[in-house]
Design a protein that fits this description.
Shape: elongated
Strand content: under 5%
Number of domains: 1
Radius of gyration: 9 Å
Number of helices: 2
Structural class: mainly alpha
Order of helices and strands: HH
Helix content: 55-70%
Length: 31
């Protein structure tokens, strides 16, 4: 469950923080 929630949060954060690179925030954010 944690993985699914993290994925959703990462995707949302990625769209908000880095709409151009939704894969970067995953590494930057302390998930």
């Amino acid at each position: 469950m944690k993985i699914k929630v993290s994925k959703s949060l990462e995707m949302l954060s990625g769209k908000v923080l880095f709409p151009e690179k939704p894969e970067k925030p995953i590494i930057l954010l302390p998930g």
